[in-house]
């Protein structure tokens, strides 16, 4: 199969042939998008104006702690991800435990949801969307209206009917299934999931998106014909979670866990080891046993599974949780299916959660340095940032190549909409490199004088491994043509 560079090589003469005839207007990148149609050879009709850093909404005043004061008062800015996301203009505190997700964060979250959708669809998941406003009557039937205590946000409508803002949706989805009286065993297993905002009245929200009162979660609910089938579904979802975190480059540990107020017979957490984590884990150094300390006998240091390994204590951030519920909810709400003998049978259930916004923050927490964000490659808001020379520098006459390069890279199928041009040419390359590192663009291309040589060379900084390379145009296309995106 020909390389990406071979396939796209015809574009480059069109990109570069116009450069000797192009005069640079030092002021054209200051505030408005540049029209390329009249300038760039045969690519004008196919290219849109480049996406300019000066036009991105990432409020610079968040880079200092003045505007973070509200967040500090809400719960002490004591973790890396909270600091980096505030300083980078990725989130803005609205009230304790609640945030505005700014455009770059929304892009990253949408990418994460696409990856989640891919993995859920691969195991037969079907996406739906249930109301955030949940009837108190359903929660009273499951007896969780009082069990959840102050964690529930409760309210009444003008007629006095009581509701809560859903922290989870076991009652709602089971009632939905129960309303479908003709469900057949041939339709099972049934896996229904959603990605929605959840609400929990945390007594002390902190750590930014790691512990909030309003957040995004993926919650899936399974319905099976037997306990054996439910366990098979349980394992299938756990394996999908393993694949998801592997694709994101996150080393998550699956640990046995308490079922808590969700209930059920079996539960596991997916924990991302981190010093800032609020959960304490016990991990065997000799086998694959790992558990939340809530499920281990206090003071125990020997492994209950292999009996020879020593349990090592670690902190973790919970990013996923799975439950085998059995018939806890389906019995209460009479969620049944008709078996092969046309007899109604109570369905076996499972519940599977992923903290969407928590995964974003946790990934930044464990992958980043103290002053620079590092995203999982698939989730970076933009993959490539191009830096033209500083206005007035000796290399300014090659500044137009940055826009042409931006247009050319957008021709790569995997980079459509993934390239930004840092047009703030009043700033030095060093200052813009620092900003690019802080915001976590995986690839930063610096346009210098070497780009105008007979055999052009482009300086490429790979932020994930902090490697700098000087590549020809073919090498650049080959490198960036292999970047995986969603």
Automatic annotation (TrEMBL):
Enzyme category, top tier = ligase
Name the predominant localization.
mitochondrion
Which catalysed reactions does the entry list for this protein?
Answer: tRNA(Pro) + L-proline + ATP = L-prolyl-tRNA(Pro) + AMP + diphosphate
Q: Name one GO molecular function term.
A: ATP binding
Q: What is its EC number?
A: 6.1.1.15
The places in or outside the cell where this protein is found are: Mitochondrion matrix
Keyword entries, A-Z: Aminoacyl-tRNA synthetase, ATP-binding, Ligase, Mitochondrion, Nucleotide-binding, Protein biosynthesis, Transit peptide
Which InterPro entries did the record assign? aa-tRNA-synt_IIb, aa-tRNA-synth_II, aa-tRNA-synth_II/BPL/LPL, Anticodon-bd, Anticodon-bd_dom_sf, Pro-tRNA-ligase_IIa, Pro-tRNA_synthetase, ProRS_core_prok
Mention one GO biological process in which this protein takes part, according to its record: prolyl-tRNA aminoacylation
One GO cellular component term of this record is: mitochondrial matrix
Q: Which residues form the Aminoacyl-transfer RNA synthetases class-II family profile domain?
A: 110-376
Name the domain of life.
Eukaryota
Q: Which PANTHER family match?
A: MITOCHONDRIAL RIBOSOME PROTEIN L39/PROLYL-TRNA LIGASE FAMILY MEMBER, PROLINE--TRNA LIGASE, MITOCHONDRIAL-RELATED
Query: What does the similarity note say?
Result: Belongs to the class-II aminoacyl-tRNA synthetase family.
Question: What is the protein's known function?
Answer: Mitochondrial aminoacyl-tRNA synthetase that catalyzes the specific attachment of the proline amino acid (aa) to the homologous transfer RNA (tRNA), further participating in protein synthesis. The reaction occurs in a two steps: proline is first activated by ATP to form Pro-AMP and then transferred to the acceptor end of tRNA(Pro).
Query: What is the designated name of this protein?
Result: Probable proline--tRNA ligase, mitochondrial
Q: What is the lineage of its organism?
A: Eukaryota, Metazoa, Chordata, Craniata, Vertebrata
The gene it comes from is PARS2
């Amino acid at each position: 199969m020909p390389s990406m560079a071979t396939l796209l090589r015809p574009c480059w003469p069109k990109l570069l042939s116009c450069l000797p005839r192009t005069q640079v207007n030092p002021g054209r990148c200051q505030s408005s998008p540049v029209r390329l149609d009249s300038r760039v050879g045969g690519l004008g009709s196919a290219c849109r104006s480049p996406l300019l850093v000066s036009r991105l909404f990432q409020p610079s005043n968040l880079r200092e702690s003045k505007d973070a004061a509200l967040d500090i008062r809400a719960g002490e800015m004591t973790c890396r991800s909270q600091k980096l996301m505030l300083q980078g203009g990725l989130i803005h505190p609205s009230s304790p435990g609640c945030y505005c997700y700014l455009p770059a964060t929304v892009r990253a979250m949408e990418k994460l949801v696409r990856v989640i959708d891919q993995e859920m669809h691969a195991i037969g998941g079907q996406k739906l969307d249930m109301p955030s406003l949940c009837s108190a009557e359903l929660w009273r039937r499951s007896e969780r209206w009082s069990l959840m205590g102050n964690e529930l946000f409760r309210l009444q409508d003008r007629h006095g009917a009581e509701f809560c803002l859903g922290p989870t949706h076991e009652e709602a989805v089971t009632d939905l299934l129960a309303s479908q009286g003709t469900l057949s065993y041939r339709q099972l297993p049934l896996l229904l999931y959603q990605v929605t905002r959840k609400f929990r009245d945390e007594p002390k929200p902190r750590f930014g998106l790691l512990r909030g009162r309003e957040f995004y979660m993926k919650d899936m609910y399974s319905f099976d014909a037997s306990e054996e089938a439910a366990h098979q579904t349980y394992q299938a979802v756990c394996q999908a979670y393993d694949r998801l975190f592997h694709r994101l480059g996150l080393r998550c540990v699956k640990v046995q866990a308490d079922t808590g107020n969700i209930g059920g017979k079996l539960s596991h957490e997916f924990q991302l080891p981190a010093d800032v984590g609020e959960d304490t884990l016990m991990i065997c150094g000799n086998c694959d046993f790992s558990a939340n300390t809530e499920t281990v006998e206090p003071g125990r240091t020997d492994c209950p599974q292999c009996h020879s390994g020593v349990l090592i204590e670690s902190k973790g951030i919970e990013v996923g949780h799975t439950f085998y519920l059995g018939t806890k909810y389906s019995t209460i709400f009479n969620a049944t299916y008709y078996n092969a003998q046309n007899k109604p049978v109570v369905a076996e259930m499972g519940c599977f959660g992923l903290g969407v916004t928590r995964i974003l923050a946790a990934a930044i927490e464990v992958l980043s340095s103290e002053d620079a964000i590092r995203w999982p490659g698939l989730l970076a808001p933009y993959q490539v940032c191009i830096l033209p020379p500083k206005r007035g520098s000796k290399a300014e006459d090659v500044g137009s190549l940055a826009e042409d390069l931006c247009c050319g890279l957008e021709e790569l199928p995997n980079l459509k909409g993934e390239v930004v041009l840092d047009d703030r040419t009043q700033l030095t390359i060093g200052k813009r490199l620092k900003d690019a590192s802080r915001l976590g663009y995986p690839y930063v291309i610096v346009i210098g004088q070497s780009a105008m040589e007979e055999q052009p060379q482009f300086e490429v900084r790979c932020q994930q491994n902090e490697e700098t390379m000087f590549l020809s145009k073919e090498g650049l296309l080959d490198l960036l043509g292999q970047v995986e995106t969603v």
